[in-house]
Write a structure and sequence with these properties.
- With 147 residues, the chain is an alpha+beta fold.
- The chain has a single domain (8-137), classed as Roll (Thiol Ester Dehydrase, Chain A).
- It contains three helices and six strands; from the N terminus they run H-H-E-E-H-E-E-E-E.
- It has a six-stranded antiparallel sheet with strand order 1-2-4-5-6-3.
- Strand 5 and strand 6 form a beta hairpin.
- It is elongated.
């Protein structure tokens, strides 16, 4: 499946006023078969136990996969919704940058499956593994006047 033309600035402002914007998620790169997003760890993303809240990492990974899905929607599709996700937390971060690299596993007409790996800073060691399935949404057919 060919990627749709990417307006990187549109992706960079897509989360403004929404959860990705609140978390400070930034788009680093969007290209065919790749979505790279990141955020900077801040106090608001730390759980009461003093470590990065797992929900923050899941939100970063889910956003990376979602933006990747948008860039790879099939012809005629108007959007998607996540129908399943799973995360394995392998580590954490208390400061610095956390990055998510998302890649498609399956780009179908009705579903997409994306994997994301999250890393702290420049480390190659994964701090989280994430997989999600998106249901592709198409415009509803117009009903005839007769009903």
């Amino acid at each position: 499946m060919a990627i749709r033309p990417i307006d990187l600035e549109a992706f960079r402002t897509r989360g403004d006023g929404r959860l990705p914007g609140y978390l400070g998620i930034r788009v680093v790169e969007m290209s065919e078969g790749l979505a790279h997003l990141e955020f900077t760890v801040k106090a608001e993303l730390i759980a009461p136990n003093g470590y990065l809240h797992a929900g923050s990492v899941v939100s970063l990974a889910d956003t990376a996969c979602g933006y990747g899905c948008i860039a790879h929607l099939p012809e005629g599709a108007e959007g998607f919704t996540t129908v399943e996700l799973k995360a394995n937390m392998l580590g954490t971060a208390r400061e610095g940058i956390v990055r998510a690299i998302a890649r498609p596993v399956h780009l179908g007409r009705t579903t997409q499956v994306w994997d994301a790996t999250c890393h702290a800073g420049d480390s190659d060691r994964p701090m989280a593994l994430f997989r999600c399935t998106q249901m592709i949404l198409y415009p509803k057919a117009a009903k005839s006047p007769a009903g």
